[in-house]
Amino acid sequence: MELKQKLQTSMSAALKAKDAVSTAAFRTALAAIANAEAVESLGEGRPALGIGAREMPRRNLTEDQVEEIVRREVVDLDAAAADYESRGRGDDARRLRDQSGALQKLLSQ
Question: Angle at Cα 13 formed by Cα 39 and Cα 83, nearest 5°?
Fold first, then answer.
């Protein structure tokens, strides 16, 4: 199973289990992937807005690109946790480390 599918399946399971920490981690990673898939359109080829607007085609990311995005999310979460820890916000740091751990566990499967 591809990583993006694993994230979607894991998020559904986390939602059903009412696991807010894992849900947040998976949702953030999926949003980062969706942002990377978006095609930037500027200038003449810019899509129309409103009535008659159409969906822009999405980029097809490789499995390596998706994995790199998730790994960057882990690094960002760990950095934010360290920042919170240095400011005496241990509970917030622990929450971010738990989110990072959920993503790392998925990456190792």
Answer: 65
Query: If you ran DSSP here, which 8-state letter would residue 18 be given?
Result: T
Number of structural domains the chain divides into: 1
pLDDT value of position 38: 84
Q: How far apart are CA 43 and CA 36, in angstroms?
A: 20
Rounded percentage of the chain residues whose pLDDT exceeds 70: 84
Alpha-carbon dihedral sign for residues 108, 91, 72, 63: positive
23: tokens are 């849900």
Structure tokens at 108: 């190792």
CATH number at residue 85: 1.10.1510
Q: Which domain holds residue 38?
A: 3-108
Section 74-88 average pLDDT:
97
